[in-house]
Structures are given as structure tokens and as C-alpha cells.
Specification:
- This protein is mostly helical and 63 residues long.
- It has a domain at 25-63.
- It has helices at residues 2-18, 24-62.
- The longest helix is centred in the C-terminal third of the chain and has 39 residues, at 24-62.
- The protein is elongated, with a radius of gyration of 25 Å.
- Its main location: membrane.
- It is found in: Membrane.
Length: 63
């Protein structure tokens, strides 16, 4: 039981005193960057999908 208590005590001390936490403004800007990049990626993949779908529909209608 003593090992568990020591582990928890040392873990709490490390989280409280030794970890460098990012500032809220930096987290916010990173989240916005991820949101914008994900949206652009989704739009590009959607456009590629639409082009392939339209091309295959045209191809199948010709034959």
C-alpha cells in the first residue's frame, strides 16, 4: 500500500510543479488552426469524391 501512496504523491507533485502547461490563448489558436485545416481537408476530399462520382456516372451512362 505504501508504494501506491508514494506513486500517487509523486505523480501529483510532478503534475503540480514540474509540468509546463500551455497558455489558454495558445491552445485556442491551435484549436482554431486544427478546425480550419480539418474543414479545408474535408472540402478537398469531398470535391475529389464528387469529381470521381460524376466521372463514373458519365462513363457508365456512355456504355
Amino acid at each position: 500500500m505504501e508504494k501506491i501512496t508514494t506513486y500517487l504523491s509523486e505523480s501529483w507533485d510532478e503534475i503540480k510543479n514540474k509540468v509546463s502547461w500551455t497558455k489558454y490563448s495558445e491552445l485556442q489558436s491551435s484549436a482554431i488552426l486544427v478546425l480550419v485545416a480539418s474543414t479545408i481537408f474535408a472540402l478537398v476530399i469531398g470535391a475529389i469524391d464528387w469529381v470521381f462520382k460524376s466521372g463514373l456516372e458519365w462513363f457508365y451512362s456512355e456504355f
